[in-house]
Amino acid sequence: MKSRNILVGLIFLALLANTGFNIFLFYNLSKIYMINGDFRPDILLNEVQKKIESDELEIPPVEIFKFISADIYAKDYVMFTGKKIVIFLNLNVLGNLNDGELKALIAHEIGHYVLGHLSDRPRTFNGTEAGDLKQEKDADSFAAKYEGSESIALAISKLVWDENEKKTRLSALGVN
Ligand SMILES: [Zn+2]
Question: Count of domains in the chain?
Fold first, then answer.
């Protein structure tokens, strides 16, 4: 009976500590991910979309899905479902990118759609994996057109882990 009480007490303490940790974690994350209660990437996506559409380019609805990966290089994915562009954004990258860089990343992914690169198979921000560096460079210059070459260059230097690919993409943008 006594050991059962101790067990219940321990479980209760563990739950309490865990909840406290979760609330703390959520509080910290919300500083990075939210602006006045709205999901930061959604707000930035809106700004990017407006810029691209003011250029008479038609784009389907874009949806950002969030996922958390322990991978610090944070593979982000984009695909086209036939109706909308879906961007899978690793929440790990958010703390690492400022607003300008995040907008450049979003513009890059939308660029893949505009340039006709997207299929229903997800492609990552890293061209080496997708096996087509030329398309990555084209999407980079699309992003540079709307969000500036400096922002997309910084996003590339933070997210692309293959040194050769990084070099090639940065020099294609005229940045070294
Ligand atoms: Zn890409």
Answer: 2
